[in-house]
Description:
This protein is mostly helical. It is built from ten helices and no strands. It has helices spanning about 5-30, 45-70, 70-80, 80-90, 100-120, 130-155, 155-195, 200-220, 225-245, 255-280. This is DMT family transporter.
Amino acid sequence: MTETWAAVLLALASALSQALGTVMRHRTMDRAQGRLESKFGVLTSRYWWTGMTISLAGFAFQGLALAFGSLILVQTISVTSLIFALPLGAWMNRRRVSKTELFWGHVLTACVMVMVLYGRPTGGETHPPLWEWALACVGGVVVVAILLRIGRRRHTSGGRAVLFGVAGGTAFAYVALFTKGVTQRWHAGGAWEVATTGEVYALVVAAVAALTLQQMSFEAGAVHQAVPASTVTTPVISMVLGVVVLGERFAVDGLHLLALGATLAVMAAATVALARKEVGPGGAGGGAAGSGDSAGDGEPRSASSTPTNR
């Protein structure tokens, strides 16, 4: 088995684990709603902790995938967690997957296959120079700061939720970037190599920032506005970081890159559509009117919440 196929399988395992873990945790919260003595009461549920453990296993699978494959490859495949969440959420909530969800699920699957099989992203530098890391970090801080500044000036909660969601998605992209650096260091020299280099400390800072920004986006407005913004931003920013910092490339050029760009746009639209479905009314995250299935679908919408972690 080549390293690329190992990365693909591990990335799929990560997406599946993240989807199952998140659906289990939110299903636990739904079932316990109104019966919790405090907002931390859900922590007493073994079912919730099982979901958290599975989600952490998904993060471990992602780290292993990044050890074998490019950042672009792994982060592109990571959006399939939305696809896995559809049948899992339907099964746990005893409902059928709607026609609209099936349609966008097929579209997203096709887009991921095109990006991976047609684009064939390849790996770049294992350890870029320090100045490239520094510039990338400064650029990320500036982008997040601008988004937060603009978001705080927004009068509408929806605008703030979207902007904070984009900021959180940007931070999660840096989490993936630093995770790849840590896995490469571990592979090269073990724990000592990891502890004596900067990627692991940058990873901790990025993870704290990402989770904080994600929570800010949830508190700023409706979850069905924040989650799609973050879910779409993470793979897009990851691609930019893979190209700029790690020197990763697609194995096509010219007009073929335009085709990949169009595919990426469709993939973003499908991701938004599925993310909105998964956090609509009746779900753990709540939602708003107007984000339901198209007329004539005649099937209940999802009650589970979508995975928000990459």
